[in-house]
Design brief:
374 residues, alpha/beta, Rossmann fold, Rna Polymerase Sigma Factor, Chain: A, eight-stranded mixed sheet, globular
Length: 374
C-alpha cells in the first residue's frame, strides 16, 4: 500500500451569489476548501467523496509539505492499494460549510460589513453542507460518484447525499451515524455550547478582535471527548493513575488523575486550531439532523435511497450506539432497499472509526469490490 505524498488545499467559490440556505437566508458569497487525491477519468465517474466529522477539515490524506509530516486524518484508508484506492478512484475531501478551516463560516469576513460574521452567520444544516459539496463536484467535473463515505457528522452528510442526490452515486457508506440525532446526543451538544457561551470572553460571539473564549471551548471539547470513548477505553488507558504525585499529596485537592490531564490537554489542543463560534454552529447543525425533515417522516426519506448502503457501527460506541446503524439497515430492507450492516469491533468507542483502520480497509474494500466496476 502506498502513500499519497504532498498535497495542496484548494479553494472554490461558486458563481452563484448570493448562496441560498435551507433556513431561508442567504450568504453574499461562499468559498469551500477541498483536497483531491488520484485522477478523475474521462467519464467523470470514478470519484469518491469523503465527508469529515465535527472538527475535521479537508486534509484527509497526504502531507502538505516535506517538513510538515502530519498526515491527513484518514490517511490509512486513502491511497494506492487501500480501500479508497487512488490508483482507481478520484477521492475528494472538502471542509464543511460553517467550519473555520477554509470554508465560509462564522469567522469569515462578511463582504457587506467588512467584519467577521460571528453570530450573524445564518443557521446552517447538514443538508446545506451537502448542497455546497455538490456544487464543488460539478465544478471538478464529477459526473457520478462511486460512493460517499464518512463517519459521525460525516456519516450524517452521507445519508443526506443518499436522500437528496439518489441518482448521483452508486453506493453510500455512513459510519457511526444515525438517521436523526437522539435526545441524549442533543443534550451533550447543548452542554458543550453552554460551556462556550458562559465563558465571559465569548462576548455574544463578538470576540474576533479580542481574547477568544478559550476556557469555554476547551471545556466543550473535554465534554465531547468523554462521549467519544467507551468506559473500557478510559479504564485501559488511564485507570486511576495519578499524575506523578507523592504519597503525602494524595489528599491535596489540586492533585490530578492522569485522565484529568488528558482532558485538559485535548481541550487546549483544540483551542489552538478551532473557532468557538464554528463549534456552536456545527453542533447545532448536528442537532437539526433528521433525514425525515421536511418530508414528514424518515420512512418517506428512506424510500428515496436507490443505491446499496453499507451502514458501519462501532461495537463500543456510546455516542452513536450500533443499534442506530442497524436501524438504518432494518428500515431500508423493510421498504425493499439494499442495505448491509458491518461492525467495527473495537474498545475505543466512537473514536473507533478514526483508529481501527485495518478493519475499515477490509470492510470498505470488500463492499466497494461488490458494488463498483473498478
Amino acid at each position: 500500500m502506498g502513500s499519497i505524498g504532498i498535497v495542496k488545499t484548494e479553494y472554490y467559490s461558486p458563481d452563484q451569489k448570493p448562496w441560498p440556505l435551507e433556513c431561508g437566508k442567504v450568504l453574499p458569497e461562499i468559498t469551500i476548501a477541498y483536497e483531491t487525491y488520484g485522477s478523475l477519468n474521462s467519464a467523470g465517474d470514478n470519484a469518491i467523496l469523503v465527508c469529515h466529522a465535527l472538527t475535521g477539515d479537508a486534509h484527509a490524506a497526504g502531507v502538505h509539505t516535506e517538513s510538515d509530516r502530519v498526515p491527513g486524518w484518514w490517511e490509512p484508508l486513502i491511497g494506492p492499494g487501500k480501500a479508497l484506492d487512488t490508483d482507481k478512484f478520484f477521492v475528494v475531501s472538502s471542509n464543511v460549510l460553517g467550519s473555520c478551516n477554509g470554508t465560509t463560516g462564522p469567522a469569515s469576513i462578511n463582504p457587506e460589513t467588512g467584519r467577521p460574521y460571528a453570530m450573524s452567520f445564518p443557521l446552517i444544516t447538514i443538508r446545506d453542507m451537502v448542497h455546497l459539496q455538490k456544487a464543488l463536484l460539478d465544478y471538478l467535473g464529477v459526473k457520478h460518484l462511486v460512493t460517499v463515505i464518512g463517519g459521525s457528522m460525516g456519516g450524517m452528510q452521507v445519508l443526506e447525499w443518499a436522500v437528496h442526490y439518489p441518482d448521483f452515486m452508486s453506493s453510500v457508506i455512513p459510519i457511526a451515524a444515525c438517521i436523526r440525532l437522539s435526545a441524549q446526543t442533543i443534550a451533550f451538544n447543548q452542554t458543550q455550547r453552554e460551556a462556550i457561551m458562559l465563558d465571559p470572553d465569548w462576548q455574544e460571539g463578538d470576540y474576533y478582535d479580542k481574547k477568544p473564549p478559550e476556557t469555554g471551548l476547551s471545556l466543550a471539547r473535554m465534554i465531547g471527548i468523554i462521549t467519544y470513548k467507551s468506559i473500557h477505553a478510559w479504564d485501559d488507558k488511564f485507570a486511576r493513575t495519578f499524575s506523578g504525585i507523592n504519597k503525602e499529596d494524595y489528599y491535596d485537592f489540586h492533585q490530578r488523575f492522569e485522565v484529568e490531564n488528558y482532558l485538559r490537554y485535548q481541550g487546549q489542543k483544540l483551542v489552538k486550531r478551532f473557532d468557538a463560534n464554528s463549534y456552536l454552529y456545527l453542533t447545532k447543525a448536528m442537532d437539526l439532523h433528521d433525514i425525515g425533515f421536511p418530508f414528514g417522516d424518515y420512512h418517506t426519506a428512506l424510500k428515496k435511497i436507490r443505491v446499496p448502503l453499507l451502514s458501519v457501527g462501532v461495537s463500543s460506541d456510546f455516542l452513536y450506539p450500533p443499534y442506530q446503524q442497524k436501524q438504518i439497515v432494518k428500515e431500508l430492507l423493510e421498504i425493499g432497499g439494499q442495505a448491509t450492516y458491518q461492525e467495527i469491533i473495537s474498545p475505543f468507542g466512537h473514536d473507533g472509526f478514526l483508529i481501527e483502520f485495518q478493519q475499515q480497509n477490509q470492510i470498505v474494500g470488500d463492499f466497494l469490490a461488490q458494488v463498483t466496476k473498478y
